[in-house]
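Work Package 3 (structural annotation) set out to generate three-dimensional models for the target panel prioritized at the project kickoff. During this period the team completed the workflow that converts sequence records into discrete structure tokens, so that structures can be stored uniformly alongside our sequence database. As a representative example, we reproduce one entry of 188 residues exactly as it appears in the project archive.
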Amino acid sequence: MQKKSRIIIWTIATFVFTTGICYGFSFYQKYFPFDSFIFAFELNFLMMGWFAFSTPHLKMKYKWNYFIPKKIENNGKIYNYFGVHIFRKILVIVGWERITNSMNISVKNNFENLKSREINTRAGEFSHLFIAIIVLILTPILTNSLKEAKWLIITNIIFHVYPILTQRYNRPRYLRVINLLKNRINLN
């Protein structure tokens, strides 16, 4: 199957999956209304599960210009301003850092693993960005006011916007080390 058709099929399947989640929850509005924290949490959790399962099958390289760090991102100050370090500390406290580090290959003394980790930042960012956009589109469809939308907005920021910012903070750091190692290898 060609890459383009695989992406189209995946996009349709993602739409069907998301619609199915919302449709399924619509039968339980008494217990899980669309304006509840539980619905917002479950929607995001199920979407992240779908993306973790489905995106590796796309076999994308994520070489778009979007993923190339911009000048303003290189020193990370803009992300510090938005509180990425606080978010990263929260990830350590809740144990997420330990889980992701156990799933990722160690980058110590291994150039290929370091490149793989940098590509993983692109894949993770792509997934979070896509889910954030889906939730953003669904929010006015499922809710009638900003008050009703609060949990969808809050969980979208916590589960997707901050992970995107974190990946964009980490990527220039990985690329700097990769370039240093490339230069060192070329000098030898």
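The radius of gyration is 19 Å.
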